[in-house]
Amino acid sequence: MERGAIDVGDLAGPFDLQATLESGQSYLWNRADGETYAELHAHGGDAWYETVVDPIPGVTDERVALRVRQEGGVHDGTLHWEASTDAEPLLTHLLRLDDDLDAILDATPDLPLLERAYDAYEGMRLTRDPVFPCLVSFICSAQMRVARIHGMQRRLREAYGDGVSLGGETYRAFPTPEQLSARTEDELRDLSLGYRAPYVQRTAEMVASGEADPLDAADLPYEEARESLTRFVGVGDKVADCVLLFSLGFLEAVPLDTWIRTTVEEYYPDCDRGSYAATSRAIREQFGGEFAGYAQTYVFYHLRAGGE
DNA sequence: TATCCAAGGTAAGTT
DNA sequence: AACTTACCTTGGATA
User: Fold this and answer.
1) A141/C10 CA-to-C1' distance in Å
2) Which secondary structure element, helix H or strand E, spans residue A232, and what is its range?
3) Which nucleotides of B are covered by protein (CB under 7 A)?
4) Number of domains, chain A
């Protein structure tokens, strides 16, 4: 096992591990203390977070088990990690430590709501989740609470994922498309996926068979990429936007979920244009275009946590 | 204790 | 293309 540390002060802008991992973007990490994400910021921010990552072209060509913990503040703290290999490039990729967060937030409009959200969750970054697990996570997110989405992904890993050991502990990788496509709808329903079970099974089948690859969307212009992802079963505009934003690096994507729709109604009623595509375009412009998705994520977390 | 409700939506069927 | 409706499950609210 290798260990290492990343000095947060060396990054371009602050970083908050807990806000980043518990803000409803990624459902692929477990807290070592067993706490769920049900209560935001309920148990302090220094827990170990654990995950297993399958090979990512250009980042890692092997499967990696890793743990990470933040000690100290969002400006001057330290990220401690333990992994089966040098995890610094991988953490940089997954947690977008290469983003210049100050510059990104400066480039968004001076809206009071955004300023309040930025102040409340200083250091929260977007994630770069592996695309297939991200796709499954957000198919499961339909009409679900954040804590329960997290529970579903955890059960999928525990039931069907390969065991990977690190430092005497065994962690579970997210099931591959092949592993998931081999399950039946009923088996997935037994994990409390409900009506999402056949969506997950059929989407896994599409990926496993080579019929479609969610990574292909990465090379398309934004709106075409969104349209392209909706080919997967259980994926509409909203879920597609989540995958584009939280996995494929389309920072302009603004998923129109119930929280953001409420925000549009209350704060920016002019942006309500009826259809998803038109409203999405309007709110994306309201949030400054290029980094609108960053703004969206702060607003989502801020409002969900009870902020105004 | 029982019932109701809403949770980061989507697919399928109608106008 | 826009509009309805059904859909699994469950913790928490309400009666």
Assistant:
1) 14
2) none
3) 7-11
4) 3
In a domain, A247, yes or no: no
CATH number at residue A199: 1.10.340.30
The reply to whether A194 has its C-beta less than 7 Å from any atom of strand C is: yes
Domain of residue A292, residue span: 258-304
Identify the pLDDT of residue A41.
Answer: 53
The predicted-structure confidence for A150-186, as pLDDT tens digits, reads as follows 999 999 999 999 999 999 999 999 999 999 999 999 9
The verdict on A229 and A198 lying in the same domain is: yes
- Give the containing element (helix H, strand E) for A87: none
In a domain? residue A74: yes
Note whether A135 and A203 are same-domain residues: yes
| A266: phi then psi, degrees, rounded to nearest 5 | -80, -40
Backbone dihedral angles phi then psi of residue A253, each to the nearest 5 degrees: -70, 130
Å between CA of A143 and C1' of C6: 13
| More confident call, A43 vs A86 | A86
A39 touches strand C (CB under 7 A): no
End-to-end Cα separation, chain A, in angstroms: 44
Q: Is residue A243 part of a domain?
A: no
Which H/E stretch holds residue A48?
Answer: strand A48-53
Q: What is the pTM of this model?
A: 0.97
Out of A77, A100, A123, a domain closes at A100
Report pLDDT digits (tens) over A257-273: 999 999 999 999 999 99
Q: Is residue A122 part of a domain?
A: no
